[in-house]
Design goal:
This protein has about 210 residues and is of the alpha+beta class. The chain has a single domain, classed as archaeoglobus fulgidus dsm 4304 superfamily (archaeoglobus fulgidus dsm 4304 fold). The chain is about 35% helix and about 25% strand. The protein has a seven-stranded mixed sheet with strand order 3-2-1-4-7-9-8, sandwiched between helices. It has a two-stranded antiparallel ribbon with strand order 5-6. Helix 1 packs parallel to helix 2 and helix 3 runs antiparallel to helix 4.
C-alpha cells in the first residue's frame, strides 16, 4: 500500500445525510455515502451509498460495506470520517473500521465537542449510553490540532497511520475548502440524496 500523501493517492470520504427530527429514536433511516477521489487530479473514482438507522448502531458495518464496494475500483490509501456520530447518535467506531477494512482511518472534528453535554444527552436517551460515549470520548481525547495555529476548532485522530501522515493527506486532498475533497463530496452526495429520497413528505421513511 502506498503511503497516504505520496505520489498519486486515492482517498475515500464518508458522510451522512439529512433526516427530520421525527426520525430520532430509531424511527427512520438516512443516507450514508462514500466518495473516493484520486489526487492530485481530484478525479472521482467511486460514489456509493447505503442506509443507516437514525440513532441506531449500524453505521460502522455500513461504512465497512461502502469501503468494500469502492475498493473494487481502486484501493484507498486512507478513509476520512466526519467525526464519529452519524444520523444522530449512530456511531462509526474508527478503530473497529480500521480492523475490519485494514485501511488507515482519519477522523476530523470541525468544531470542539463539549463532552459533558454529549454525556448528558446520551445518558438521557440511550440505555447503552456508556458504550456510545466511550467511543466518542476516546476518539476525541486521541485527537490533536489539525494544523498549527488553528486552535481547537479543527482536530484529527488517526488509526493505522501516523498523525503526521494523516495531516499530509488532508492537506493534499483539499480543493478550495478546509474539508478534504472526498469528504466534502460525500457530504454533498449524502445530503442531496437523502432530501431527494425523502421528497417533500417528511412522513416518508427511507
Amino acid at each position: 500500500m502506498r503511503t497516504p500523501g505520496s505520489g498519486s493517492s486515492h482517498y475515500l470520504g464518508i458522510d451522512d445525510g439529512y433526516f427530520p427530527k421525527k426520525f430520532k429514536g430509531m424511527r427512520g433511516r438516512t443516507v450514508l455515502a462514500a466518495v473516493m477521489t484520486r489526487h492530485p487530479s481530484a478525479s472521482v473514482l467511486c460514489i456509493e451509498f447505503t442506509y443507516i438507522t437514525v440513532d441506531g448502531l449500524d453505521a460502522t458495518t455500513a461504512a465497512a460495506y461502502l469501503v468494500d464496494k469502492c475498493r473494487v475500483r481502486a484501493e484507498p490509501q486512507l478513509v476520512f470520517l466526519d467525526g464519529v456520530t452519524y444520523a444522530g447518535f449512530n456511531i462509526i467506531d474508527p478503530e473497529r473500521l480500521h480492523l475490519i477494512t485494514g485501511l488507515p482511518i482519519a477522523v476530523i472534528f470541525w468544531r470542539p465537542l463539549n463532552m459533558e453535554k454529549v454525556r448528558k444527552a446520551l445518558a438521557n436517551h440511550f440505555p447503552d449510553w456508556r458504550y456510545r460515549y466511550g467511543i466518542i470520548e476516546g476518539v476525541y481525547r486521541r485527537s490533536t490540532p489539525l494544523e498549527h495555529g488553528q486552535g481547537s476548532a479543527l482536530r484529527i485522530a488517526s488509526y493505522g497511520v501516523s498523525t503526521a501522515v494523516a495531516r499530509q493527506a488532508v492537506a493534499s486532498s483539499r480543493i478550495y475548502h478546509p474539508y478534504p475533497y472526498p469528504l466534502k463530496l460525500a457530504d454533498t452526495v449524502a445530503s442531496s440524496l437523502s432530501r431527494y429520497l425523502l421528497g417533500d413528505d417528511e412522513n416518508h421513511r427511507l
